[in-house]
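Q: Mind making up any chain with structure tokens?
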Amino acid sequence: MYKYAIARQLATKKLITNRGDNIGRLVDLMVNETTGEIESILVEVDPSSKVVKQLEVQGNMLEVPYKSVLAVSDVFIVDERQLVG
């Protein structure tokens, strides 16, 4: 049996790194129209985030590749190494 998440349930979920740093909150998902796979996540960043400061984000939005997502539950957990590289 497959488990589906309703898009409404994903709205405004927080993104944190595997080291516990709050990156921000989910704003939108970028989906490949052909395959239906999620390609990236658009995040409204937390300006006090250590990771965000290292990335030198312009404005308040960050596009996070979905391949860096390790888990999704109450929050999205993202591999910090794949962001900062």
